[in-house]
Structures are given as structure tokens and as C-alpha cells.
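Bumping with the actual sequence this time:
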Amino acid sequence: MRSPAIQGRRDREEPYVLDEQVGFALRQAQQRHTTIFAAKMIEDLTPTQWAALAKLRELGDCSQNHLGRLTAMDAATIKGVIDRLTARGFTTVRPDPRDGRRILVALTPTGSDLYDRAAPIAALITEKTLEPLGKNERSIFVALLRRLA
């Protein structure tokens, strides 16, 4: 049985309503984006594979570990992503000549070509994901998400 002090506090608390929780809303938005991504992206690329390709195109050759940090993936996840991209001929891996413990990842010409074909589609996916928002709302929404990240 609860003490009277705890019971009194409980009676004054707002009820927990799942639909009003930020995590639930974020998950729904993520599901919306993932559905759009899967329907539109080419070559069966996953969001994590696309993130790795896009970041490699932006930065050039990069250590696998650093690429994982830049794309918000842990070591095991980025390794799996790069293994799959490499098996498909989109990336190559090699030891870092300055530090043999590090693995360097690079886009292949096929990977660069894929990036060139997929980038406009990725932009369309972003547009579709944000479609319910007005232009000003989009900017504010993305800015607020970056503050949370």
C-alpha cells in the first residue's frame, strides 16, 4: 500500500499519454521517413548504407571507426555496413599505411556513380518526409532536431 504522501502526489500528476510523448512522436516520424526511403531509394540501399556513402563522398577516404562516429553508428554497425558495401563493389577497405591498426574506407568508381544517381533521390526522400510542414516549419524542425542530437 502506498503511503499517503505518495498517493497524494500521484493524484495530482498528469496521466502518461503515449501519444503525447516525444519518443513516440520521434519513432513515428522515423517510421514515416524509413517507409519513404525504402520505397524510393535505388539499389536496395539502406539508410545506414546511404549515410556511409554520402559521408565518404563528402570527406573522401576515412577510417572506418571515424566514419562510424560521423554517421552515428557503433563499431559493429559500421563494420557490417562497410562489409556489405564492399561486397557490392561500392567501397574498398585497406590498412592505413600510417597506422596498421586502422582500416581506411574509400568509395570505388562504382560507389561514386551510385552516389551521383542516388543523391537526387535522397533529396526527394527528405522533401517527401518533410512534406506536411511548411518551409519555415521545416527549417525550425530540422534546427531543433540538431539541437537534440
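The C-alpha cells above came from a reply further down the thread. DSSP finds seven helices and three strands in the chain.
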